[in-house]
Amino acid sequence: MPESVPRVVIVGGGFGGLAAAKALKNTPAQVLLIDRTNHHLFQPLLYQVATAVLTPGQIGSPIRGILGRQQNTTVVLGEVSGVDKDKNRVLVSSADRAAVPITYDFLILATGATHSYFGHNEFARFAPGLKSLADAVAIRNKILQAFEQAEAEEDPRRHRDLLTFILVGAGPTGVEMASAIATLIRNTLKSEFRRVNPESARIVLLDLAPRVLGSFSEDLSAAAKKRLDDLGVEIRLGQGADHIDADGAIVAGERIGSKTVIWTAGVAPSPAGKWLNVETDHAGRVCVQQDLSEPGHPEIFVVGDTASLVQGGRPLPGVAQVAIQQGRYAGKLIHRRITGKSAPKPFRYFDKGNMAVVGKGFAVLQSGKIHISGFLAWLAWAAVHLQFLAQSNLRVSVFLQWVWTYLTGQRGSRLIVNHYGPDRAEQPVEEVPSDASKSVRA
Ligand SMILES: Cc1cc2nc3c(=O)[nH]c(=O)nc-3n(C[C@H](O)[C@H](O)[C@H](O)COP(=O)(O)OP(=O)(O)OC[C@H]3O[C@@H](n4cnc5c(N)ncnc54)[C@H](O)[C@@H]3O)c2cc1C
Questions:
Q1: Which CATH number describes the domain made up of 7-36+78-115+268-338?
Q2: Alpha carbon of 169 to ligand 1 centroid (Å)
Q3: Do strands 202-207 and 164-168 pair parallel, antiparallel, or not at all (unpaired)?
Q4: Residue with CA nearest ligand 1 atom 3
Q5: Model confidence pLDDT, tens digit, residues 269-280
Q6: Distance 306 CA to ligand 1 centre (A)
């Protein structure tokens, strides 16, 4: 690709960034995709890595591998720390050197979201959130370790605390995690432990909201709650965690002893708004125009979880479909501009629906007026998720694993591996607005 063609820099190789890069496949441009990890991550299945159904390699694909055949595209491993709009450049640091500037003609920011502890960052040490593969493996270690320790524990109080799991946040991630832990205990671990009685395990799911799966209709929310009840999950609605420490949590004034507290409550956008120094919504997401560009900067686009766009009177949700459709739109718009074509119509999100799994063979599905719960919804969930995995080898491997787990109860990866990156407790947590979770998927 000659140096004289325009350069499109995409920051983030998640759903939005990858869709943008693919849309630029045939564009006479130099496309540069920068990500701080070397892989695209299928976040909707992270909970299955955290509960040992799938291995990390089944839901992550090297970005280089996905875009390898796209001749106009270069993948750069590095962390962006700022944008200099006057000089049209982003600042990128990599493992062994200080930040270097990379210039752009067009810029797409698709840097996603991070955890929000609603101003209680001190909880992060004791209640890890689920956002990356390292998070998922750290949580898997914690859950499996708790069972191993419980098997050897003589003290009844410690034994009980080891078998108590608290999930803070009853959105889709909290519900999926709670039901997956219940299934792990009842279907997989039951026969292998001698001193761990599945009936004595306690899974507590908390939320300040009045119902689980608040983004779904009331009938589906009720169906999910009933299913959770059947699985033995203790649901505490209208209650949040007032305090979390190494011994558990204080919930509505009551201490619940637990060695495993998992934060499934809030996420907040990346600092893209700070880099651009532009108007953001209450959650910190960049307010973009109807063509997803920054006001006054037609060469800068923000897509996915880190963008805020109101349509039909409501902000678009922080879900994969929004990020994919926005990334694709921004890529196509840039293609049209570079090739001298007229601008496309403003971006419109096409809502294909919402789904969440609640244990083995059960899901809830909402798409327009269609509301389904049960096995059929679970089949639809499985088909959609397989379809959106980044590579065909992963589709085959995940499908086979699901069939195997469904039939036998056996999981893909029940290894406790402590060498998988630093402990969450030592990782810094970004300062975020206290009500950030309202607009992005919990
Ligand atoms: C546990 C969990 C479960 C979910 N389940 C569902 C679901 O069932 N259905 C659904 O529709 N949505 C779900 N979501 C939400 C969905 O995953 C997000 O909406 C989607 O990933 C947003 O895409 P994105 O491109 O904006 O960001 P992401 O996919 O998060 O990608 C952001 C990318 O930017 C990179 N990055 C970030 N900062 C920098 C930087 N400074 N420099 C370089 N690179 C950077 C990251 O490494 C990452 O690769 C879930 C999310 C989570 C966390």
A1: 3.50.50.60
A2: 18
A3: parallel
A4: 44
A5: 899 999 999 999
A6: 9
